[in-house]
């Protein structure tokens, strides 16, 4: 009986600990100040429909080393509670050292063959809004689209939960489309390892 309880409890405990040690799964609340030597980026994600078995996540990659962060968890379409009424979407925040970073979508449990690659720059001492990425289903399957249309909604929500950060302090520098990642391109973008722990 105890073994069965432990067997069922351990995966749950792992998820709780992973959530506590990760970024990007949600947005920071009650932030008093920007962590020293770092900047904060805000973005939102959305999906036309949810997917429990083969959901799509965004992978954060360091722009200099091309290594991905294991502690940044951003999922488009897993049926977690939505932050916005009438749609499946979430506000995200990530605290990072100054520099360039990449985001690209990866389908969980399957190999990603093609994906748009986005990049953004983090400035030390700043809170920056970088835009919205939404997952849609088109002629060729899952498609990721950038939008700037949700800026006011996203910044308003972040500001309402972080009273110590003035709305006027939040800058807007949208992420940029960098290239189309393809697994079949030998000279294309490649992830060169994993960075463990917090950025």
Order of helices and strands: HEEEEEEEEEHEEE
Q: Unreliable segments (pLDDT under 50, ≥5 consecutive)?
A: 5-20
Mean pLDDT: 88
Q: Main β-sheet, in a few words?
A: 5 strands, mixed
How many H/I helical runs? Answer: 2
CATH-assigned homologous superfamily: Immunoglobulins
Structural class: alpha/beta
Strand content: 35-45%
Number of beta strands: 12
Helical proportion, percent range: 10-25%
The CATH class label is Mainly Beta
Radius of gyration computed on alpha carbons: 17 Å
Shape verdict: globular
Distance separating the two termini: 40 Å
Q: How many domain units?
A: 1
Task: Write down the CATH topology.
Answer: Immunoglobulin-like
The CATH architecture designation is Sandwich
List keywords for this structure.
199 residues; alpha/beta; Immunoglobulin-like; five-stranded mixed β-sheet; five-stranded antiparallel β-sheet
Task: Describe the protein in words.
This protein has one domain: Immunoglobulin-like, CATH 2.60.40. The protein contains two helices and twelve strands, in the order H-E-E-E-E-E-E-E-E-E-H-E-E-E. It has helices at 2-20, 151-161, and strands at 38-47, 56-62, 68-69, 74-75, 88-97, 99-107, 114-122, 127-138, 141-147, 170-172, 176-182, 194-195. The model is unreliable at 5-20 (pLDDT under 50). The longest helix has 19 residues, at 2-20. The protein has 199 residues and is α/β, with parallel strands linked by helices. Strands 1, 5, 8, 9 and 10 form a five-stranded mixed sheet that branches. A five-stranded antiparallel sheet has the order 4-2-6-7-11, with no helix packed on it. A two-stranded parallel ribbon has the order 3-12. Helix content is 15%, strand content 40%.
């Amino acid at each position: 009986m105890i073994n069965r309880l432990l067997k069922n409890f351990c995966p749950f405990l792992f998820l709780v600990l992973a959530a506590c040690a990760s970024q990007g799964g949600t947005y920071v609340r009650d932030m008093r100040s920007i962590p020293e030597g770092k900047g904060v980026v805000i973005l939102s994600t959305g999906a036309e429909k949810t997917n429990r078995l083969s959901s799509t996540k965004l992978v954060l990659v360091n722009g200099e080393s091309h290594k991905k962060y294991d502690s940044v968890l951003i999922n488009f379409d897993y049926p977690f509670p939505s932050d916005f009424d009438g749609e499946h979407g979430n506000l995200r925040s990530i605290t990072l050292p100054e520099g360039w970073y990449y985001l690209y979508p990866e389908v969980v449990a399957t190999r990603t063959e093609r994906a748009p690659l986005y990049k953004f720059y983090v400035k030390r001492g700043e809170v920056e809004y970088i835009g919205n990425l939404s997952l849609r289903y088109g002629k060729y399957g899952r498609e990721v689209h950038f939008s700037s249309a949700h800026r006011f909604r996203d910044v308003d929500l972040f500001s309402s939960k972080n009273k110590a950060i003035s709305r006027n302090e939040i800058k807007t520098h949208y992420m940029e489309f960098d290239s189309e990642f393809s697994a079949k391109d030998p000279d294309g973008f490649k992830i060169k390892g994993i960075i463990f722990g917090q950025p």
